[in-house]
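Hey, resending since the last one bounced:
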Amino acid sequence: MTANSGARPRSRPSSAKLGEVVRRAVAEFRELSGLEPEQVSGVRSADEGWSMLVEVVDVERIPITTSILSTYRIDADRQGALIGYERIRRYSRSATDSH
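The structure tokens again:
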């Protein structure tokens, strides 16, 4: 018998594997936004499905350390269909987080 720490048990949102969900949502984001994602930097379960953080190059510069990148939050349903997205951060490639 295990003790319940009060945390809600997480159930799989669907039979779709996480990788498939992410690929589908990122592909729809790419098609709608016209932006090419460089990296998925985060994925978490959300009420209606999944929320992902995607890094994209907004302005490519030379040298590349001066390029401007953005972080977008992408929300998808349980099967990976895009629900919405928004830019939440813009930064230079050479910047580091302050925390």
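The chain has one domain: 18-92.

Sorry for the duplicate.
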